[in-house]
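From the pipeline queue, job 12 of 40. The input is one protein chain; the requested action is below.

Action: predict structure.
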Amino acid sequence: MKINYTWKHLDRSEAAEKHADEKLERVTKYVQKIVSCEVSFEAIHGEIHSNMKLHADGNNFNAHNQDKDVYVCIDGLEDKILSQVSKHHDKKSQH
């Protein structure tokens, strides 16, 4: 899965991007066709706000998280996006 990263008011961190790649790889378990995936990080008043936009299987999934640590933000994004994608997967498999 190819993820586009955007860093605003922060220095780019390849370690954080690699961590996100590993965490978000679990999404592919629930979706078949991923069109695009964008993750953005922005520093606002000492906190890091992270957003994720995933376009897969004809649907858009969005998640937002904020914390003082980038890695905690990534873990929160993973939890939120997996929850959305798994609910969609369950609904789709029931039909």
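Job complete. The two ends are 27 Å apart (CA to CA).
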